[in-house]
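Anyone up for a design puzzle?
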């Protein structure tokens, strides 16, 4: 999916963290969006295959472990890993899926029912996910 779509999902996670845990809005928003985009840093490294190791459950656990080791924050550690996991879920809608269980298995996982049917360049699907995520974020934040 598009970066804007992943960022919108990060905004949704940040709004939930702020609502339920009264965390700092700007800090939470920054980190949730950053981690939501982090799996796609592989497109900037020519030797790393896109939707490879950065799109695995093992990679999703790594940011949370790093955040916890540095800041001792359960909230931000969970936010980091959940942001990456949400990225994987969104990308599993794509026909190529994600290698969720790598290195244990090379099989690519697609989201059940509709997985594998939405191309990442489908502007309508991206727009719908973005609107749904931002709309839900607004609902969570409003009293």
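Challenge accepted. My sequence:
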């Amino acid at each position: 999916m598009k970066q804007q779509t992943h960022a919108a999902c990060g905004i949704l996670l940040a709004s939930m963290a702020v609502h339920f845990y009264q965390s700092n809005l700007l800090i939470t928003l920054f980190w949730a969006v950053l981690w939501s985009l982090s799996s796609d840093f592989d497109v900037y490294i020519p030797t790393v295959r896109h939707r490879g190791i950065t799109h695995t459950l093992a990679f999703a656990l790594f940011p949370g472990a790093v955040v916890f080791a540095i800041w001792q924050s359960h909230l931000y550690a969970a936010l980091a890993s959940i942001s990456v996991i949400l990225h994987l879920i969104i990308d599993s809608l794509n026909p190529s899926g994600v290698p969720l269980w790598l290195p244990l298995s090379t099989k690519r996982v697609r989201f059940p029912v509709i997985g594998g049917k939405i191309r990442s360049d489908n502007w309508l699907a991206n727009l719908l996910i973005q609107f749904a995520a931002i709309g839900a974020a607004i609902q969570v934040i409003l009293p």
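A detail worth pointing out: Helices lie at 3-21, 25-38, 57-71, 74-91, 123-141.
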